[in-house]
Amino acid sequence: MNRRRATAIAITTKCLPRADVKEDPDGFAFVCFQAFLYIFGIKKGRLETTKKSLATTGEPPVDGRGKHRSRLSKMSDELKQRLRDHISSFRGRQSHYSHERTRRLYWPGDLNINKIFLLFKEKHCDDSLS
To answer: Could you tell me which residues belong to the region Disordered (predicted)?
Structure first.
């Protein structure tokens, strides 16, 4: 049996008998709404959003995750470089536990992130960047 391939899928709210996909002369394949959700493992809201976007713009919705228009807490490159320089200004020492030569250096035990930040604020208190 020679069946032509459907060019688009139209989702109907009424369930179709059997597992057949009905095609109309325009090339649309009608698929049961519940079956479509179950087959692709998606929720009704996601499909409704996609249908709405396709109806209004003709394109699927654009994924907006991780895209921010304004980053109020973004650090400038100059401030990042000052922080790197400040952190690298502390002398590290080699571990006395290691018997092999490594390039890893360790800060003294009394130095922590909070102290480093306070020292940075003291050193750059008059700067507008910090």
So the answer is: 52-74
Q: 40-50 as b/e, with b when 16 or more CB fall inside 10 Å?
A: eeeeeeeeeee
The two tokens of residue 107 are 């800060």
Q: What is the pLDDT of residue 6?
A: 42
